[in-house]
Amino acid sequence: MTRYVLVRVVNGVFVLWAALTVSFLVLHLVPGDPVSVMLRGAGGEGSAVDRAAADELRAELGLDQPVYRQYLEFVANAARLEFGTSFRSGDEVTAVLGRALPATLELAAAALLLTLVIGVAAAVAGSLLPTAPLRSAVLSATVLGNALPSFWTGILLLQVFSFGLGWFPAFGAGTIDQLVLPAVALALPGIGLLAQVLGRSLRTALAEPYVRTARAKGASRLRAVTAHALRNAAIPAMTLFGLMIGGIVAGAVVTETVFAREGIGRLTALSIGAHDFPVIRALVFLAGALYVVVNLAVDLIYPKVDPRIVLRAA
Predict the structure, then answer these.
(1) How many CA atoms lie within 13 A of 3 on its CB side?
(2) Where does the record place the ABC transmembrane type-1 domain (predicted)?
(3) Gap between the Cα atoms of 271 and 278, Å rounded
């Protein structure tokens, strides 16, 4: 187990390095000059950029150095978890992330909880309902959330439950009622995927001999699903749920923009528009680290769910 974890940690470090390297190269190939964006923002949209001021600011930010020097300095700083100063705000990147992260963590936790509870409940209901049409109807209904674009879902929820019925506030963060609509909008695509994958795994598990034996011994269908089939059917759903955690961060870009929430998602959109390289690189690092940690955690949970799984380092 220890060797497996060490190998995965080394692989994770490589994944982070690769993600940071790709982000560095892509950002330098994107058309546009962050210095010009910053100076135009300071002087007003459409204002002329003073060449001397631009050269001075470029030197101050280190953007006048050769690309390879910028890259080496960037990698060395990233290894120390230092990402420099935001081009857009002038604050330390870690401070910028620290202000945005709590709101996104709150939203992500609520969306993941909804995804897990409703997705598992729909999959179990799709296995327990008495008739095939009812079981198919429940699982088919969950697909709608995955089929609808998240921005459209968010606007629809605002139109119906905020502007129409007035049940929830349209924008902002900090209270439970302001969290409901964005959490639902963010969770709906994941609910459909989780219900479909877990429902299919449950149908396969219910056809296994050990379930038929349990039924022959007098176990009810509810007990056969919850006590016997669900645990063995959970492995594919666990893998998908782990991937969803990363997807939640990506989905937050749209959701936080629609609901005007200050978080990592909205920060990403603003930073890309402002060519704020330090913040974008830090966000890529954060997403990569989340991906590595979550996948390692899911792998370590597998043997606890199914003792037949043995983790071995490649």
Answers:
(1) 5
(2) 101-302
(3) 9
Global pTM? 0.70
Confidence of residue 36 (pLDDT cuts 50, 70, 90): low
For residue 285, what are the contacts with CB-CB under 8 A and spacing of at least 6? 16, 19, 20, 78, 83
d(CA 22, CA 162): 41
Alpha helix stretches (DSSP H) within the chain: 2-29, 34-43, 51-61, 67-79, 93-128, 132-147, 150-157, 176-206, 209-216, 221-223, 230-258, 264-273, 277-305
Q: What is the pLDDT of residues 116-157, one digit of tens each?
A: 888 888 888 777 766 667 767 766 676 776 677 777 777 888
Asked if residue 206 lies in contact with residue 229, where contact means CB atoms within 8 angstroms, the answer is yes
Name the DSSP class of 314: -
What is the amino acid identity at position 151?
F
Ordered domains of the chain (ranges, CATH) = 2-79 (no CATH), 93-273 (1.10.3720.10)
